Amino acid sequence: MDTLLAVLIGALYAAGLYLMMRRSIVRLIFGLVILGHAVNLLIFAAGRLTRAHPPIVPEGAAALVPPYADPLPQALILTAIVIGFGLQAFALVLFRQAHRVSGAEDLDAMRTTDSH
Amino acid sequence: MFSLILSTTARAIMPLTLVFSVYLLMRGHNAPGGGFVGGLIAAVAFAIASLADGVATARRALVVDPRRLMAVGLALALASGFGGVAAGQPFLTGQWAEVMVPVVGKIGTPLVFDVGVYLAVLGVSLTMLFALSEED
Amino acid sequence: MLYAVLAGFAGAGIAPLAHRALGRASGWVLAAIPLALTLYFASFLPAVSAGEVIRWSRAWVPSLGVVLSFELDGLGLIFALLISGIGTLIVVYAGGYLAGDPKLGRLYALLLAFMASMLGLVLSANLILLFVFWELTSITSYLLIGHKHESEKARKAALQALLVTVTGGLALLAGLLLLGIAGDSFDLPLLVARRDLIAAHPLYPAIVLLVAAGAFTKSAQMPLHFWLPGAMEAPTPVSAYLHSATMVKAGVFLLARLAPLLAGSVLWYGLLVGFGTLTMVVSAFLATQQTDLKRVLAYTTVSALGTLTMLIGLGTPAALKAAVVLVGAHALYKAALFMVAGIVDHKTGTRDILRLSGLRTALPITTVGAGLAALSAGGLVPFSGFLAKETTYAALIEFPWLLAASVLANAFGMLVALVVGWRIFTGESQVIPDDPGPVPVALWQGPLLLGIAGLLLGVFGWMGEGIVAHAASDMAGQRVPVKLALWQGFEFEALLALGLSVFTLLLGLAFYKAHGLLLRLATSLDWLYQRGPYRLFDLGLAAFVSLAKWQTQILQHGYLRYYILTVVVTLLPIGVLLAAPGSPVWPVTFGPVGLFETALVAVVLASTAFVMSTDSRMAAVAGLGGVGYGVALLYLSYGAPDLALTQFAIETLSVVIFVLVLYRLPEFRVLTTRAQRLRDAVIATSAGAVMTLLVLAAQSQSGASRVSGFFAEQSVPAAMGRNVVNVILVDFRSLDTLGEVVVLVVAALGVFALLKLRPEGEAH
Prior knowledge:
The complex is a heterotrimer. Chain A is mostly helical. Chain A has helices at residues 2-20, 25-46, 71-102. Chain A is elongated, with a radius of gyration of 19 Å. In chain C, helix 1 (2-22) packs antiparallel against helix 3 (32-42).
């Protein structure tokens, strides 16, 4: 099963990177989102995977009862998901405004920071 | 593109979603939930409202400017950290009162911190959402 | 004591508001902050004079050994009193000097912040804490020198000072870290106790070199002195405070603080005495080559700093005693003289000593202050400057060459004192064009009070014996007897020192007679001065910038796909290593495959393929939603309900945002050839394969980290929470979370600014 997940992660990486290498700015953003999923899953899969044992201490117990899913990558990913959302929104708006100002839809036309 | 069905449903769903988001926030320390999830769910409630009845309505329902929510949330999270300093411990060390509250469990500065996260995340999401919706 | 340090920062926060509310009186009111601090520190005088050391500490980053720990000993107290005391006068002075300047509120804020940083520096008992305050003084100094930021010259001077001192700061950081390693602690008192361990450590030479580099840049030792005369671009209150009395002494203070740890080797001795003596003599001579009043004073300051460095390097009890007395006396008279220079500039509009004369009628009270300060600077009885010179001479009696150098430097100093305190005030009164009227109290109080203080400390020097003795003992690591009196008795050393003082006076008078000659020399040596170290600095900086430009143009070409290509090609060797037989990846087993998970993986893959292939943007957004929800369900099935909930909420919001923006973005267009797409597909696929191998390798190293075990056990007892993920976020790692929330807020503000704020001139 873990192997299946590893293959999925590789596929998502490939898809994300391929989309980011397009010159169309909309595809770049889609690639960014998919790459975000791939990274989150990578961190997730690098920890110990168990099915259906969330890292929540049962009522009355003092510590987690094994087997439990590793809580640390989960905490990392949780914030990564939210930050990823912020990044995605910012990137979208940035490209939208860049497109509005320059009229370009080809990334190769946006290579310099100078406006003139 | 006003839709009566969407609008009516949204009005029924929105308070429920908001209550649910606060519930998620409060129980977060002991069960799935917390400030991030709670704040996002609350933002979804307002997103639905703005799609159904327009941004102006959603803004009125929120009462305060979402940018102010970000500031308050951040300030709250920061302030909770000084509880530790006041007790002579490093910044952000959790301090607990010996009070048990249903759903929440013990009351302490980490809860205040989580409320700050909730408000900040809600503020962040809605600042973006409203700014985008209000574009001509 | 923490609050005493923080008071200045708090004051800096309210200063601009206070200035707006109070207007012209703001300087007098804000001076209450440094005044209160002066009184606070003065209240420790009896205790510290009696040999007590007041300590205060609190954990800051306990895991790294960084402690907020402050210590008030003799040395620290003398500096603290100088910083807060002179700070009081400077704040008032700045109010008068820059009255009407719209940036005055900002200047107050920076002055107070600087004062707080400086206090923190001299009171720190932890190396890391000391370094933090050290850098804060560099930054506040940068902003203060660049106060007139409309002027290119001021900006350049500020940047130069920053680059030099911060480069030194970097060396210092390395030195302090090595010191921490050698002594296995960052705690200063503890390190002093382990001095033998440090002296024998193989890192010792590196520590001394790095620390000296830091101190030399800050205290303007030659050849790194050039930023200090340049810093005279700052408004005069800043020069008087930072560049005479306080900040430039930070380097000297550092050497004094670390002397008990590091002194005792040939390296330390050679570096400090060598550079100190060179600086002392050469810059005293260079002072006579200047005609700008402030630059004259700046070079004599550099000379005094050289003397201090030399004395600390010598490290004999007498030399350390002399260093302490000189620090105090110099701060008093030099700050006063700078303030005088400011008043003269304010009144006449020029600082050229050749064009100034007869100012005694126009500036009667300033003349008194200037005279008192100059008498102290010249080292005349009964001023504190006299005590400083006498103790210095007494300390150098065993070193004839250094003694001769010191007499020479002091004679040049005498000349400068005569120029500043006599020449410009006497002679024919000049007509002052655009006379701004009588000089306000706020301006003349500073030099007058400091002048009187210099006199009183000379006459009543014996009252300070206790504190000076303890300061010197702190540095020497042994008891130093101190006797401060104008008449030292009939012993040989005392008489010799007195004789040398008389000789210095005569030599100084002779130089004064020859001042015209010296200035003519300056004209003929101008070609040499144009090639000073600052020129080297300019050339080096220009070369560095063009190097940066060149390599940026090569690396930052602006084609995203080639950046990605570079990353992927770099990754490939790892992939090859992982795929080789014998790597932990093999054998790959699929294990029991759950139907639900397999279905989810299939959904995610299909949605991804759909996003890549569709021509419709809206359909692609729907496909993206499919990927997100599929991933969320995967989280759920692998025991991560928090992640699943978050992903669901985010996915919903994402779709809304995409829908709002997307129809304003261009349609999909195919801009590449078939061959290019094939090339990109190969690159992307190989990157994906490497990542798959990486995950497999990571999974073969089974078991959760030790950190996770800690969280699993401590969550309930230490943090009262049963949801471990949430406990990590809001308790164990809450500082990280705070940082992440800040990032989100910044992103939201960015979106807001991009959409709502338009550049000026652009219509809505």
